[in-house]
Amino acid sequence: MFQKAKKLSRSKERLAIFLFLLPFILSFLAFFAFPAFYSLALSFTTYKGYGIAHFVGIRNYFNLLTYSTMWNCLENTFIYSFASFIPTMLISFLLAIVMRSKSIRKYQRIYKPIIFLPQICVVVAASLVFQVIFGNRVGVINQLLNTSIPFLTNLNLMKYPVITLIVWRHIPWYFIIFLSGLTTISEEIDDAASIDGSNAFQRLIYITIPIMKPIFMLAFVNYTINSLKLFTEPNLLLGGSSAPPLQVAPYLNLVTNNIYGGNFGMASALGWFLVLFILVITLFQLRLFRGDNS
Fold first, then answer.
1. Rounded CA gap, 252 and 260, in Å?
2. How many CB atoms lie within 10 A of CB 85?
3. Is the dihedral of CA 268, 274, 277, 282 positive or negative?
4. Model's pTM, two decimal places?
5. Do residues 27 and 253 make contact, with C-beta atoms less than 8 angstroms apart?
6. What is the distance between the alpha carbons of residues 269 and 257, in angstroms, rounded to a whole number?
7. What one-character DSSP code corresponds to residue 135?
8. DSSP letter for each residue of 59-94
9. How far apart are CA 131 and CA 128, in angstroms?
10. Banded model confidence at residue 9, pLDDT cuts 50, 70, 90
């Protein structure tokens, strides 16, 4: 009797666990798994969004690889990602280091909300503000310098306001990530190193950074994935009511352009090409960090 009651109790526990997981499983299948596999199937067809989808094999991918505009937009996205990566990570980490110092730590309740403010600011509002800052004639920068630099109309300069906006918006998020990682480092280790005669820079290089490697890996991989999916900032800042020129447009603009044009097969192929591109870069980053750990 006792064993039967125990088995019945375990069955009820498993059923309860399954029932709690069921809403997530159903939503995952309905809103992620099915659309993902459906778009993968569409990438091998020509489909206008209605009627019959015609199978064309890998023709969409072949056309994609020979499509110069696609490589240009992918290059734009990579430039936005790489150019904003270094200042974002560097400033975020330095802010977290400063915030952890004993002289500043007592003012965290004041500084933290101020630093995190750009992250909670609506992207549309931030883009409008940056349009005012980088405006060609009445912009803040041109007014202060008494110049007329065409930041938002010159194709050679249009990327800089976008990179600045990306850095400004992403610093708070990675500041929180680095600050959370720094809180896991025991102050006793830092104090012991200080007693042994090491200065602040030596403690940062030989203690803090090696301990923070898993946090760096998380931040770098997360930033790479999100930045390669860039869409909102360049379109709002450079496009306004219309799309920005293809010379400065992000990669995802090609996906939306093909959807609007009724070419769902090519749009799906573009999406899956980006997935593979992100996967390759992410695996490279993970292997690089594992190599450092070994």
1. 13
2. 18
3. negative
4. 0.85
5. no
6. 13
7. -
8. HHHHHHHT-HHHHHHHHHHHHHHHHHHHHHHHHHHH
9. 5
10. low
C-beta separation of 274 from 251 below 8 A: yes
Percent pLDDT > 90 in the chain is 39
For the segment 168-181, what is each residue's pLDDT rounded down to a tens digit? 999 999 999 999 88
Q: Which domains occur in the chain, in start order? A: 61-293 (1.10.3720.10)
Contact 165, 257 (CB under 8 A): no
Rounded-to-integer distance, Cα 216 and Cα 180, Å: 12
Gap between the Cα atoms of 126 and 133, Å rounded: 10
* Interval 45-71: pLDDT, tens: 998 888 888 999 899 999 988 888 899
Other CB atoms closer than 10 Å to residue 47's CB: what's the count?
22
- Burial code (b: 16+ CB inside 10 Å, e: under 16) for 232-261 equals bbbbbbbeeeeebeeebbbbbbbbebbbee
Residue with tokens 């088995």: 7
Q: How far apart are CA 208 and CA 195, in angstroms?
A: 16
* Whole-number Å distance between alpha carbons of 81 and 248: 13
- Tens of pLDDT, residue by residue over 261-270, are 889 999 999 9
Q: Which tokens sit at 24?
A: 């997530």
Residue 247's φ and ψ, nearest 5 degrees, are -65, -20
Tokens of 92: 């975020």
Give residue 4's pLDDT: 59
Q: From 294, 228, 282, select the one nearest 74 (Cα to Cα).
A: 228
| CA-based nearest residue to 77, from 274, 276, 279, 285 | 274
Among 273, 221, 210, 263, smallest CA distance to 53 is for: 263
Q: Are 98 and 178 in contact (CB under 8 A)?
A: no
* Two tokens, residue 233: 């900032």
- The 3 state secondary structure assigned to 207-235 is HHHHHCHHHHHHHHHHHHHHHHCCCHHHH
151's tokens: 């930041």
Residue owning tokens 């959370």: 180
